[in-house]
Design goal:
This protein has 10 helices and 11 strands. The protein is an alpha/beta fold and 305 residues long. The chain has a 6-stranded parallel beta sheet, sandwiched between helices. It is globular, with a radius of gyration of 19 Å.
Amino acid sequence: MRIYVAGHNGMVGSSITRLLDRKGEHSWIGASRQELDLADRGKVFDFIQEHSPDAVIIAAAKVGGIVANNTYPVDFLSENLQIQTNLLDASHAAGVERLVFLGSSCIYPKYANQPITEDSLLTGELEPTNEPYALAKIAGLKLVQAYRKQFGKEWISLMPTNLYGPGDNYDPENSHVIPGMIVKFCNAKKTKLPSVTLWGTGAPLREFLHVDDLASATLFALENYQGETPLNVGSGEEVSIRELAQAVKDAVGYEGEIVWDSQRPDGTPRKLLDSSKLHELGWTPSLRLRDGLERTVANLPFECS
């Protein structure tokens, strides 16, 4: 297949293209943000029509952590709706046969039964701190299903858990939890600070997946899955934020103390995906969390010693 990877320079997209290059079974095309503004509907239609890919992987999105979502809710809702709708509509207009839409585990209710199964969607209220982003991803997932129903498209959606790894965003103002911790511990290590303060109580439970495992799951699903049900993509390895902080601290080599600011929000109390449907198809992750963290810290885009 000739695959258009939307967002190929991002964390997920770049991991997918690296895997495609290593495997050599499919070719891929991409366009940088400067070459193609995905919010420009006309240009997106022209690009996909011109290049006529056999498949499209939508890895492009505006992403960020709790602070960014709370500060810029319009951006996260509006920009993501535009990006994914333009790509889906243009793919249909160009007759693209296969498509993978990458969503997020934040689409599920804040108090969903754990582990979270795919049929938990829209059964309860969302976590308020990332609701705009979640609503956009839900809309994208539903549009994929609508195209399947109305036009018979063999398009699919994947819902990955929390990601980390190469290409992550290390801006302290809008990063996710793992890169945010890495930056804090690295800065504290370099400046010899006696302690690092982290948000919340450390009690929430989370699951993390190395982005290279998501890339392998994406290609596996593209080649082997054609069902209507979105598939969860998780590691199955659950840790508390407190345990995660210790693991990141160890990977960085910081020797000071961790202080928890319990006046700050914890977010969703627990989020573990039931990824059994994908596992039953034959895909499993390859990296344990501590191994993935060590690999990530060893290849940071900045100095941490």
